Structures are given as C-alpha cells and as structure tokens.
Amino acid sequence: MNFDYESMNLIPKKCIVNSRSECDTSVKFGPHNFHLPVVPANMECVINDDIAIMLAKNNYFYIHHRFDNDIISFCKKMKELHLPISISIGVNEDAYELLKLLNKLLIIPDYITIDIAHGHSVKVEAIIKMIRKEISKDVFIIAGNVSTGEAVCDLELWGANAIKVGIGPGSACTTYTATGFGSRGAQASIVEECVKAKNNEKTLIIADGGIKEPADIVKSIVLGADMVMVGGLFSALKDSPGSIVKGTDGLLYKEFWGSASAYQSNKKNRIEGTKKLLRMKSNTILEEISYLKECIQSAISYGGGNNLLSLKIVKYFLKS
Q1: pTM of whole model > 0.85?
Q2: 3 with 309: CB under 8 angstroms?
Q3: What percent of the chain has pLDDT over 70?
Q4: Catalytic residue among 153, 173, 194, 295
Q5: Which residues span the domain enclosing 284?
Q6: How many Å apart are CA 264 and CA 291, to the nearest integer?
Q7: Among 92, 201, 287, 302, which one is least packed by beta carbons within 10 Å?
Q8: pLDDT number for residue 298
Q9: Where does this protein have coiled-coil stretches (predicted)?
C-alpha cells in the first residue's frame, strides 16, 4: 500500500523523561557524529560555502551542491579549517576530472555524494567503481536519487554507503508531472520499502523530498531513514542563498528552484524542475535547526524513548 507522510499518525507511548531537553537527537552518519539527523538539500538556493562552514562548525551535517561553484577552493578551505569535507558530483567527464585533481592534491573528501535525478544508472555504477578503485576504498559515498528497493540493492552492491531516496516528491521538482515517474504522493511508503530492501544493515538511507513540516522529518525516521534532507523549509529562511524578491503584495519572498530546472541550468530544454517563490521567514538557518531539534526531541518523548533509536520502533496507523 502506498502512502505519504500526511496519511500517517504516530502512536504515543509512555514518556520516560522529565523534559524533552533530555532527549538526544545526535546521529552517527558515516565517519562523523552530528547533532541532528537533518541535512539541508544540496541545492544552490539552499546551501553555499558560508552556510556549509557554519553548519560544519556547529556539528551539523551538510552536502555542498555541485552547480557553478569552485569545489577545489572549497575543499582546500575546509581542510585548512579542519572541518568535514562533503561535496556533490555528477557522473560526466568533469566529475572524473575533479576527483582526479582532488586526489592529486591529496584531498580526499569525507563524503562524496553522487547526485543525479535518476540514480539507478550505469553511469552511477561506473563512477562509484572508479572512486573505489582510484580514489579511496574508505571514502563515504552517498548515491541517488532512487525510489525502488531494487535500486537500493544495486547501489549497495556497487559500493555506496548511503542512498538518497526520493524521485520527484519535492515541491520544486516536476519529474512526476513531466514524466509520470517518481515517488510523489507515496514518498513515505517508498522510504519504508527502500529501508526494508537493503541487504547490509550498515547501509544508511537519506529520505529526500516531500518534507512539508517537522512532523514529516520524525515520520521519516520512524520509517527507518537515518538522515532527512530538507529543501523548501530551509530555502525560505532569511539567510538562505536564494535571491530576495519583493512581491506585488509588498511582502518579501525567496526564490526556490529545482536542481534540474531550466533556471538552474540556464537552458530551455530542462523539464525536471521549476522555480517558485516562497514567503520569506524571519528566522535564520541556525534558528530553524534549533526549532527542528526541539520538535524531534518532543517527538522522542512522545515515542517513549530518550534518543533517536527509540523512534525506529514507534508504531503508526494510516488515516483512511
């Protein structure tokens, strides 16, 4: 049965903490521990160098985007600051050249995210195998995006450590409306399917897309996700990289666009993304993260535990 987050109701259990502040939201993800199982989307309108540094300094996970930025300079900067290096690459020749140059400079990122719209691909298989053979057997590889259990099993086999799950559920993505493929309207059940499909318990799952409110993050974790990627909720914040636009109503908005959109690529033949305006929020990224942490802590207390692992055994029912 396919379902999405809004159809889920979580079932509370006896609270065992005196205050939600006692609940631990930390998570081990790859070689590092982080304060929260939430990562801003690796989109140009969500993250840039400064935000990546800010997140890393505050012990939050980040994945830098791969569009129109100087990855080499960024990696050098993060290495000098002794901060985790987490980058995105594509699957074309420029990605191979980037990896070889980083290797020549003796810079091995902590995390490499292979980021394409349809991650169950022979090109993804090829670049994972190249990384494992020529760059590092130990670097933490994230690959995606996918939306089937079969894809999860293949990416595991190819050498991915973590897999991004979600094709087209995001509000700025038009893959589903343009092609008919994807997880829109069923992202929650697809996350659950992909979690159950993995053969290696060490393989981690990132639920990516369709997060409209903090409860959706909690539900993703209940379904088995280890990390949750959020785009729109961060893009609308006042210190996000997106441009500020004054609307005809006199209110301020933030531009939000999909990574495969024509706006992103400066091409007119890109059909899998769109640009939209989001009402700008008054809070900052760190303030939003603090709020999300409180929401997750509260959820842990309702779930009868004191850490994230306790959410993994929370039960739910589906609204008819």
Answers
A1: yes
A2: no
A3: 93
A4: 173
A5: 5-318
A6: 30
A7: 201
A8: 99
A9: none
